[in-house]
Design a protein that fits this description.
189 residues, alpha+beta, NADH Oxidase, 4-stranded antiparallel β-sheet, 7 helices, binds flavin mononucleotide
Length: 189
């Protein structure tokens, strides 16, 4: 697939078949995803790939957050909150759930935004590579209510924090294409 076609084909997928994703495929995706740029070339990412019983444990923790989603009802509306709650109950049946962690870096030259941007670049590579392989994925915000439990469920070592979560599997839905804003540039001539 041409890069532009992959960019167009990538959508957040939130429903998956039960077909597992080969470990070799995940390894290859991670290998290429980590070609991303990073602040001071720190490559702050580490992937915690949960499948099988570990995936069940992660989902059990995330499912606890459905009770808090009502906090967003004013902003998102009841339908979106219900949809999200259904998704969070079992993460769309995704056979793999992946946490991405970074170390806490105590360096005045490296701020948290740069670490998050670096991980974001790596995550986008991951999502595009997954799309190219016919897989579906969705990036998730780390739910703050259960952040500590998630560190344990993903077996993240001390001194690191979770920056991102991704669900991965073979799509069982054709996601609706989200509209894009076009008023995104100011040309300074
Ligand atoms: C940093 C980040 C956090 C996100 N968090 C969530 C989330 O918590 N739950 C969710 O369902 N989707 C989440 N998404 C997916 C966005 O909702 C999605 O990318 C956006 O609606 C555009 O749709 P598309 O990815 O299909 O183009 C997140 C995406 C990003 C980049």
């Amino acid at each position: 697939m041409e890069l532009k076609d992959v960019l167009r084909a990538r959508h957040s997928v939130r429903a998956f078949t039960s077909a597992p994703v080969d470990e070799s495929v995940v390894r290859e995706i991670i290998e290429y995803a980590t070609l991303a740029p990073s602040t001071f070339n720190l490559q702050p990412w580490h992937f915690h790939v949960a499948t099988g019983a570990s995936r069940d444990a992660v989902i059990e923790v995330i499912a606890q957050t459905t009770q808090y989603l009502q906090e967003y009802v004013d902003k998102l509306g009841p339908e979106a909150v219900d949809r999200e709650a259904r998704f969070y109950a079992d993460l769309g049946g995704a056979p793999a759930v992946i946490g991405v962690s970074s170390p806490f870096i105590e360096n005045p030259l490296v701020d948290h935004t740069n670490i998050c941007l670096s991980i974001g670049a790596c995550v986008e590579n991951f999502l595009l590579l997954a799309t190219e392989r016919g897989l579906g994925a969705c990036n998730l915000t780390v739910p703050h209510w259960v952040a500590a439990e998630l560190l344990r469920a993903f077996d993240v070592p001390e001194g690191r924090e979770l920056i991102s979560i991704m669900v991965l599997g073979y799509p069982d839905e054709q996601p609706v294409e989200q509209e894009r804003s076009t008023d995104v540039v100011t040309w300074l001539r």
